[in-house]
Each structure stands twice: as structure tokens, then as C-alpha cells.
């Protein structure tokens, strides 16, 4: 990012975020979940777009807790105490809000883990008998990903892992460069130049996808350019979701050669009788 490049975005990097992670007191208990890295460190370099779908839906602060129930593939959003079903209202709101976010030129999104509205993965889904399974996705997060399938997304909990954090930042920057290239106007030659500039990064993440994208670019003249560009963008961002192996790893040490086998009849040196010394002449 230090060198000048035609693929560098000129506008500030704009990312969506669950508002509680910036310290906004919007949680059901009136509190927040401020994340120092996101609010203070990464916040110096990006423009955050905070969203709390539960507050924006009109549930208020403080409010009754809500949770996911039923089928993890299509759960219902239910208030814990009064049993009010909020599924339809949240789904309608989430789709409309995702459409608004699509017009803000986002290049990433950080969601609150375990949230019934914002959690990306392993959100508890409660079933019969009070048992819960960590197999759900928050309804708002689901709508955002459906509307913006190429958008790099992550949860704040996973960003505490240095490797996952580096991977997310790399995907955000790559997506920003892709959007900048599209905004500048894409041609076959520009697509080839974009692929050449990102080929080392792609090869490090997913060599097979890198070759597949290279073939797509090489044969771009055989299909409508718009379809080629759409396929390339989807393949480009999908390849970067594969975490690149860490650099600077030590070369694997070769196992020590096996000790030479002894003959089954051989005895250890310590157990062998000492050779007899010849008697001296009288």
C-alpha cells in the first residue's frame, strides 16, 4: 500500500459495524461492548457506519432480551419473556437497511458475535426442552450478506486472533481496490492488469483459484465482458477468504536416520567376555 497504484481507493475506507462495538450504549441492558482495537486502533484508518438493528427496529433501550428459536436454517426471532415473534418485522427491516448500506460503498463489516440479530456464526438457536444449538446466524447479518455477497465480513471475537485479523484487513483492502477498479471503468486490458497485480496474493491464498481466474481473464474475449467481470469479482473475493499459510515458517526437520540393526546373535559390548591375554613365557 506504500507504492502508488491505479488500483488504490481514493475515498476513505467505509465499514459497517455493530454500534455496541464502538461503545454506543444500545444493548438490551443499556450497556455496550466497546472493542478497543476496533474503536481506537482501526478506527483511526476507517470510517465506521454504526448500526444497531434492534434499536433501529424500535425495541428501545433497555429492552427485553430476544433470541433465536426453532430451525437453525430458518430460525424465528422471539422475545424471551412476552414471547412476541419479531421474525417478520426484523426480516423486513433488515432487507431495507441492507439496501441502504449497499448505497454507502462499504468495503467491510464487523458484526457482534453471538447476537441473535448480528451474529455471523455459531449463534445459539433454542429448541424444545430448553436446549440450544450453536448453529445460527443473526437475521440482520444474514440479510446484509445476502444483499452484499462479496463484502468482507467478520465478528469482533475472531478479530482478536492476529492471523484472522490480518486476513480480514487484507480482504477489506483488496475489495476496496476491486471497487476502485470497477469505478474507473473495466475493460479487458484493465482486468488483465488487475489480475497481474494481484496474482502473487491470489497464489498465496488459493493457487487453484488463481489459475482458474487467470484462465478466465485469458479467455475474456469469448464472453460478454460484464459476465466475465462479475465472475472474476466473485472468484477473487472467494479465493481471498482462504487464509494464506503463515510466512517465515521453519523448514521441516528431517527425521533422524534409524539406528543400524544388530544381528540377533550379537551381544552388547559390555556383555561380551574380554579377550584373553596371551601368557608370557616362563
Account of the protein in words:
This protein is α/β, with parallel strands linked by helices and 282 residues long. Helix content is 37%, strand content 13%. It has eight helices and eight strands. The protein has a four-stranded parallel sheet. Helix 6 runs antiparallel to helix 7, helix 6 runs parallel beside helix 8 and helix 7 packs antiparallel against helix 8. The longest helix has 23 residues. The relative contact order is 0.10. About 5% of the residues have low confidence.
Helix and strand sequence: EHEHEEHEEEHEHHHH
Query: Which residue ranges are poorly predicted, with pLDDT under 50 across at least 5 consecutive positions?
Result: 249-256, 268-272
Proportion of beta-strand residues: 5-15%
Overall pLDDT: 88
Sheet with most strands:
4 strands, parallel
Distance between the termini: 96 Å
Question: What strand order characterises the main sheet?
Answer: 2-1-5-8
DSSP summary, beta strand count: 8
Secondary-structure-derived class: alpha/beta
- Principal-axis shape: elongated
Radius of gyration: 29 Å
Question: What's the number of helices?
Answer: 8
- Helical residue percent? 25-40%
Amino acid at each position: 500500500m506504500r507504492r502508488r497504484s491505479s488500483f488504490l481507493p481514493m475515498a476513505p475506507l467505509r465499514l459497517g459495524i455493530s454500534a455496541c462495538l464502538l461503545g454506543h450504549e444500545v444493548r438490551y441492558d443499556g450497556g455496550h461492548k466497546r472493542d478497543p482495537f476496533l474503536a481506537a486502533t482501526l478506527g483511526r484508518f476507517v470510517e465506521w457506519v454504526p448500526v444497531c438493528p434492534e434499536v433501529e427496529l424500535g425495541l428501545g433501550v433497555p429492552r427485553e432480551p430476544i433470541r433465536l428459536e426453532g430451525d437453525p436454517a430458518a430460525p424465528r426471532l422471539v422475545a424471551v419473556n412476552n414471547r412476541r415473534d419479531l421474525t417478520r418485522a426484523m426480516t423486513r427491516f433488515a432487507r431495507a437497511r441492507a439496501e441502504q448500506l449497499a448505497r454507502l460503498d462499504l468495503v467491510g463489516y464487523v458484526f457482534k458475535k453471538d447476537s441473535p440479530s448480528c451474529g455471523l456464526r455459531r449463534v445459539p438457536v433454542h429448541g424444545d426442552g430448553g436446549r440450544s444449538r450453536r448453529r445460527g446466524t443473526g437475521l440482520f447479518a444474514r440479510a446484509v450478506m445476502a444483499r452484499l455477497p462479496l463484502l468482507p465480513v467478520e465478528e469482533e471475537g475472531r478479530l482478536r486472533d492476529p492471523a484472522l485479523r490480518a486476513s480480514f484487513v487484507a480482504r477489506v483492502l483488496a475489495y476496496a481496490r476491486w471497487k476502485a477498479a470497477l469505478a474507473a471503468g473495466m475493460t479487458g486490458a484493465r482486468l488483465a492488469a488487475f489480475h497481474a497485480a494481484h496474482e502473487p496474493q491470489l497464489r498465496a491464498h488459493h493457487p487453484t483459484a488463481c489459475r482458474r481466474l487467470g484462465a478466465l481473464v485469458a479467455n475474456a474475449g469469448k464472453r460478454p465482458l460484464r459476465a466475465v467481470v462479475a465472475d472474476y469479482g466473485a472468484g477473487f473475493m472467494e479465493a481471498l477468504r482462504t487464509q494464506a499459510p503463515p510466512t517465515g515458517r521453519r523448514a521441516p526437520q528431517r527425521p533422524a536416520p534409524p539406528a543400524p540393526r544388530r544381528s540377533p546373535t550379537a551381544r552388547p559390548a559390555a556383555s561380551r567376555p574380554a579377550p584373553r591375554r596371551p601368557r608370557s613365557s616362563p
